[in-house]
Amino acid sequence: MVRYALSGIAAIVLLAPPAGAQSLKFEAPADVAGLDAKIPALAEAALAQYREPDERKHLDTLFRLQITARRWADAESTLAELHAPPAC
């Protein structure tokens, strides 16, 4: 039974169409302080390109990117929207 389930999961993964990858240019700095300074800019670049058709996933990832980009007010608004009751 488990073997059939694993075979089914493997088939789904192997036959699923590939998702469009988003590429960002990033040069890793040599030290941790440099990395700490570059992460918000990397998050900003990701925010500019980020697309997700599933609204819940979109809001969840958007919130995380906004926090990383230090966009506190935007993140607070996104989090409130994420936790709002669904519209009827």
How does this structure look, described?
7% of the residues are buried. The chain is built from four helices and no strands. It has 88 residues and is an all-alpha fold. The protein has one domain. It starts with a helix and ends in a 5-residue tail after the last helix. The N terminus is likely disordered. 66% of the residues lie in helices and 0% in strands.
Compact overview of the structure:
The protein has 88 residues and is an all-alpha fold. The chain contains four helices and no strands.
Topology diagram in text:
Elements: H1 2-15, H2 32-49, H3 55-68, H4 72-83
Helix pairs in contact: 2-3, 3-4
**Basic shape:** elongated
Q: Strand-and-helix sequence, N→C?
A: HHHH
Our measurement of the CA-to-CA distance between the termini, rounded to an integer number of angstroms, reads 40 Å
Give the biggest beta sheet: none
What is the CA-based Rg, rounded?
18 Å
Low-confidence stretches: 2-19
| pLDDT averaged over residues | 78
Total DSSP helices: 4
How many structural domains?
Answer: 1
Strand content bin: under 5%
Helical/strand content category? mainly alpha
- The proportion of residues forming helix, as a percent range, comes to 55-70%
Number of E-type strands: 0
